[in-house]
Design brief:
Radius of gyration: 30 Å
CATH class of the largest domain: Alpha Beta
Number of strands: 22
Shape: globular
Low-confidence stretches: none
Strand content: 25-35%
Structural class: alpha+beta
Number of helices: 11
Mean pLDDT: 86
Distance between the termini: 42 Å
Strand order of the largest sheet: 8-7-9-10-22-21-18-15
């Protein structure tokens, strides 16, 4: 090939690369092969970005030269911002700042609420610690929202989208947490409040004798009531439903404490008859499940007291969910001391759908029951699979107007507690937040909240099958190598015999 032709082809190839790069700056495209589509913008994010009517500036504070796993978070966040910028039509603008460049930049980041985290860095076979910044500040006009630390994975999109929604929303709908029947205050459910306060104003509310429940409340949340509901209160709840309102009820009709070793059904506080009028029954049986949480017991070991974890079937871990917006994407909800729910709508126009079930290895225990922590559970104890533990209902539940209603057969599954609060399992919080989102007719973040793989527990298998997998993983590779070696040896022997006989 002539030299001139080689040069011309190189120039043409270079020009093509330049054109491709110019096009790629205007068109951002990536293929997403992850099972949870974590690198694809959700419909909720697209809707929120399309509705923006003002510019939001995202200032990302990221340290450069971080360890590879953290550097990947920076690249993923930048890719996400590029997509947000393109989708919003320019209403999202961003810049990256390296606070580690100077003490002044670090002080600016910290003053804005972005604090460093200490990470280990290996340099010249030595492990050192460095201050790493992985946060962002969003600003629209006078409003500011801080993301102190960007979490990798699908949580990155949720954090960014919720922050955008929080500073762009004008008038938030109102959600009432009912008081006056032994319910904890809204602040006792702090994790749920942190999620739903992005979209809603939360108010404690007590039913009065003189006024109906205000129709401006999108949803009435009734969480873990323990005192009697007077008939007048139930009548006002029915009247609220007949105006198109929605009710979220998390209620335990069974004793929920380990302090008493004898567990019983609790006295009716008026809700059983109210639910029965809607074709819903909370059964007076404990659901037990082989897929369960554990309790810590103290055991004497010589002169010492040792703590030991024992699986406790009264603490079911749910992983069987229906394809409903409230439960879609959930992977592990813990429901201690829960009862099952039966339903048969009295009106054919009412649609009741189960949200979650116990596992295939579950059963029911009649009350009263004596708790034996050391009990040896057998297959015969788990002979009632797939018990319904939560339902969602739509239709004319009280009167003629269509309304929505959700019942979860445990009152405290998403409650942190008053005063000294405990952390709640994340999917418990997601279930409660999703329920309120769905009831309040604003499901913008309901799919995004549970987007991403959080837990992939091993399937429950018998001991024989488990041993087969265990020893098979050890023996199979060895047998495979021996088999390949024998096959190659026999093939070489046949070739050698052919050579001896003169067949080349």
């Amino acid at each position: 090939m002539k030299k001139s032709k080689v040069i011309s082809q190189i120039l043409i190839f270079g020009a093509i690369l330049v054109v491709i790069n110019l096009i790629s700056e205007k068109m951002f495209l990536r293929l997403d092969f992850t099972s949870d589509q974590r690198y694809t913008l959700s419909d909720a994010t697209k809707d929120i970005l399309n509705d923006l009517d003002d510019v939001i500036t995202v200032t990302a504070y990221f340290t450069e030269d971080m360890p590879p796993q953290l550097q990947k978070s920076r690249r993923d966040f930048e890719d996400l911002l590029i997509e947000y910028e393109n989708r919003s039509g320019g209403n999202i603008v961003y810049e990256f700042i390296n606070p580690n460049e100077s003490e002044a930049e670090e002080q600016k980041a910290q003053q804005k609420g972005i604090n460093p985290v200490m990470v280990n860095v290996t340099e010249k076979d030595q492990v050192k610690q460095m201050r790493a910044y992985l946060g962002a500040v969003l600003q629209m006009g006078e409003k500011t929202e801080i993301i102190p630390m960007i979490q990798p994975g699908a949580g990155m999109e949720y954090a960014l989208t919720t922050s955008i929604k929080k500073i762009s929303v004008q008038d938030k709908p109102k959600v009432a947490f009912l008081q006056g029947h032994g319910e904890p205050s809204p602040n006792a459910s702090v994790q749920v409040l942190q999620q739903i306060s992005v979209l809603y104003d939360i108010e404690p509310y007590s039913i009065t004798d003189t006024a109906d429940i205000p129709a401006y409340f999108k949803t009435i949340a009734i969480v873990n009531p323990s005192d009697t509901f007077p008939k007048k209160d139930l009548d006002k709840l029915d009247k609220y439903l007949n105006t198109g309102g929605s009710i979220y009820l998390a209620y335990s009709n069974l004793q929920t404490s380990l302090q008493s070793q004898s567990l019983n059904a609790l006295p009716d506080i008026g809700l059983m008859g109210w639910l029965a009028d809607k074709g819903i029954t909370m059964n007076s049986q404990y659901v037990v499940d082989a897929n369960c949480g554990a309790v810590t017991v103290q055991q004497q070991n010589g002169p010492f007291m040792m703590n030991r974890q024992i699986e406790f079937p009264y603490f079911p871990i749910l992983s069987n969910f229906s394809d409903h917006p409230v439960s879609k994407g959930l992977e592990g909800v813990i429901m201690p001391f829960v009862s099952s729910i039966s339903y048969l709508p009295k009106d054919s126009a009412v649609n009741i759908q189960p949200l979650m079930f116990s596992s295939d290895h579950s059963g029911v225990v009649n009350t009263p029951v004596f708790i034996d922590i050391e009990k040896e559970w057998s297959d015969s104890d788990f002979n009632a699979p797939n018990q319904v533990l939560g339902i969602a209902a739509e239709g004319p539940l009280s009167g003629t107007a269509n309304s929505k209603f959700i019942l979860i057969a445990n009152g405290s599954f998403a409650v942190n507690g008053e005063g000294q609060q405990q952390q709640v399992n994340p999917d418990n919080v997601n279930l409660a937040s999703n329920a309120i989102d769905w009831l309040s007719d604003d499901t913008g973040l309901i799919d995004l909240r549970t987007k991403g793989i959080t837990s992939r527990p091993l399937a429950q298998v018998e001991d024989t099958e488990r041993n087969l997998y265990k020893y098979g993983n050890v023996a199979l590779p060895i047998l495979l190598i021996i088999g390949i070696a024998l096959f190659r040896r026999q093939r070489y022997a046949r070739k050698r015999q052919s050579w001896i006989q003169g067949n080349y």
